[in-house]
Design a protein that fits this description.
Layout: E1 5-9, H1 15-22, H2 27-36, E2 39-43, E3 46-50, H3 54-66, H4 74-85, H5 109-120, E4 123-127, H6 134-147, E5 153-158, H7 174-193, H8 195-204, E6 207-211, E7 223-227, H9 235-242, E8 250-255, H10 269-276, E9 283-287, H11 297-313
Helix pairs in contact: 1-3, 2-3, 2-4, 3-4, 5-6, 6-7, 7-8, 9-10
Amino acid sequence: MAQALLEFSFEPVNNTRLARLCGVLDENLRQIENAFDITIVRHGSHFSLNGGNARRGEVALRYFYAKADRDLPREDIQLGLVEIANRDEVPTEAPVLVTRRSELHGRTQHQIDYLRKIQEHDITFGIGPAGTGKTYLAVASAVDAFERDLVERIILTRPAVEAGERLGFLPGDLAQKVDPYLRPLYDALYDLMGFDRVGKLFERGTIEVAPLAFMRGRTLNNAFIILDEAQNTTPEQMKMFLTRIGFGAKVVVTGDLTQVDLPHGNRSGLAEARTVLGRVRGLAFTEFGKEDVVRHPLVARIVEAYDKKRNTSKTPIHGHKNKGKNSGHDETDE
């Protein structure tokens, strides 16, 4: 079957815009090719596109050409490609967030629905593969709520289950041992609020980043709380966390059920919560898929390939296999 061929030219041509559109050594064109699985051949301002998604490739080229009154960094190209790929589904209006990143918004239908659910519900679950923005958008929503004076504190937490028995071999106290596992949350805060401001808010205790173990016994009022990597909680830990919620609090729970690191035989607390709490009023769930990945275009294909293998093998949602019999939960995880 012959591939679709599409040809067009930019007239009148603007060589500066054209150079920015193509990127250094045509790097931007390569990204567009990879995103839509097409071939792009350029002669001056004339483009020939080959492939089943040639029409979307043309849309992308015209979209970025219009934006090429300035430089187009790789991140702008990749995020723009996500929007174009989902353009038929994404509504024109999306929640506006108050952060340092004024251009921040949902790029796909699921991301937009996720942001709306966070604003409209006290507890929201975001479940899906890596790169779908579930953690970053949750942190952005927390910053937005704080800037609007809807909450007094931001609390970010995640289980340190990845460290396992290795915690004892790392230098420093407990907080320093688990710090590497909390780094993605720090990075999101710095990006959305600025390094200096985040540092001052940490000093005042207005922002807190802590392992899940530190949540036990607390009641959290007037705070925006995010539990990240929730697939690595046990059902007991998930119940403990959700019952910490106090008045004026808003909670977002994020996780990827294809990357459970619990010992074999331990059911994921996130998987159980999705089953047990699916119809509880006041809670909302957003399920992300490969179409929501906002990283390099290849990431979506990698996710799809692993999903196919997982669905074929019908692997249960439990922890990885471990030598010997596991007698219960790991105390480090609590």
